[in-house]
């Protein structure tokens, strides 16, 4: 361990001394690559050293990624822990040690750190994304990295740490290939814990119809759990009855172009509503808000799309009566979206395109998530195919001109 303590204090690139340090510390059977037992011994040493450095950083009151920082010849500031990680990352990349070791150290580091320090640690992970994503490392550590990120997300507050959560999700989206099954909700499980709370008893001095208020917000119970509608006909009837009341109200109280332009918020921040307020006192104002109406109507289209999609078993297929009711409701919803200003037609076209792509995504998952990547066609083979295609094209052109000549026409 003392050899690695000295190594993290050395200046220069890890390639100048990293392998030599491992050879002196482990004395491996091979000169450039460790065997299994040697890898395990090295991992134990590094994990112990990492824990020791974190403990020292906490006791000193410094951020752990800045603890024991030094400045090299290029005036770059390095902490001892990032320096240790750089050394291990270099050794893993060059396959001198087991490729998953760097991922294990990063997981240990996040588990030992507070969320304030984890943000700095994750910044290091983001900066090394290209190296960590190389095939020789990715195959060894992808599950550990996924577990590390999921643990961080569980520890973060979805309300107060939105930016950090977004960084983690964006990292996972870039780190894993698009066809990676571990990053996909294969079964299409809905977040039924996303409960929308609203008032059950009318407050005093309420100026709107409280029954409509309850009917309106009760729709959220079905939006967050669409499968419940296909297995329980009574729920579907209750849902359609409530939806008809809401659609009738929207149709009876259309928003004019002037009102739409006045109430529509074009500010970019206005597009990021996590939840709308459900106070009964706001119901009248919300009904005049085009963004609010669109929010509800788009939820309807998403639910209809789910119900129309064929399931894996016959029980999941909607009945013929249900299909007709879905079609009728869907037409009314689209009509309302089209007449809701501003730019109702353009908005509806965008939503339809998004839903079409979502259907393709659902089918891809139901087909077992086949990889998107296609094998590269060899150059010589590609040239042969191209020549063959050109010869067929010339043949078609010859036949075309031959027919023209027979018809006595000029081109």
Automatic annotation (TrEMBL):
GO cellular-component term (any): THO complex part of transcription export complex
Annotated Pfam families: efThoc1
Database matches in InterPro entries: THO_THOC1
GO biological process, one term: mRNA export from nucleus
Record's protein name: THO complex subunit 1
Organism: Cuscuta australis
């Amino acid at each position: 361990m003392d050899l690695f303590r000295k190594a993290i204090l050395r200046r220069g690139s890890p390639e100048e001394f990293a392998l030599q340090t491992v050879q002196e510390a482990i004395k491996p059977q091979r000169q450039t690559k460790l065997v299994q037992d040697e890898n395990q011994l090295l991992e134990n040493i590094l994990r112990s050293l990492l824990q020791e450095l974190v403990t020292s950083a906490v006791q000193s009151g410094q951020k752990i990624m800045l603890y024991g920082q030094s400045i090299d010849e290029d005036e770059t500031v390095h902490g001892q822990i990032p320096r240790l990680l750089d050394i291990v990352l270099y050794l893993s990349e060059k396959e001198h040690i087991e490729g998953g070791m760097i991922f294990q150290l990063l997981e240990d580091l996040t588990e030992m750190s507070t969320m304030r320090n984890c943000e700095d640690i994750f910044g290091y992970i983001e900066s090394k994304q290209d190296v960590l994503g190389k095939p020789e490392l990715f195959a060894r550590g992808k599950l550990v990295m996924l577990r590390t990120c999921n643990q961080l997300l569980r520890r973060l507050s979805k309300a107060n740490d939105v930016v950090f959560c977004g960084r983690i999700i964006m990292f996972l989206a870039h780190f894993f290939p698009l066809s990676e099954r571990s990053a996909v909700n294969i079964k299409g499980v809905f977040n039924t814990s996303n409960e929308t709370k609203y008032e059950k008893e009318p407050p005093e001095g309420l100026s709107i119809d409280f029954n409509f208020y309850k009917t309106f917000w009760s729709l959220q119970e079905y939006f967050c759990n669409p499968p419940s509608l296909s297995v329980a006909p009574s729920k579907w009837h209750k849902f359609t009855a409530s939806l008809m009341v809401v659609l009738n109200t929207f149709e009876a109280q259309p928003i004019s172009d002037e009102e739409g332009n006045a109430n529509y918020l074009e500010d970019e921040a206005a597009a990021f509503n996590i939840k709308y307020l459900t106070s009964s006192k706001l119901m009248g104002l919300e009904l005049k808000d085009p963004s609010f109406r669109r929010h509800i109507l788009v939820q309807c289209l998403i639910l209809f799309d789910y119900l129309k999609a064929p399931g894996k078993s016959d029980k999941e297929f909607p009945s013929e009566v249900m299909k007709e009711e879905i079609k009728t409701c869907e037409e009314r919803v689209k009509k309302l979206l089209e007449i809701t200003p501003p730019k109702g037609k353009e908005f509806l076209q965008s939503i339809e395109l998004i839903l079409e792509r979502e259907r393709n995504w659902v089918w891809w998952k139901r087909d077992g998530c086949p990889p998107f990547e296609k094998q590269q066609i060899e150059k010589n083979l590609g040239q042969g195919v191209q020549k063959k295609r050109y010869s067929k094209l010339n043949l078609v052109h010859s036949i075309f001109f031959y027919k023209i000549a027979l018809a006595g026409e000029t081109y």
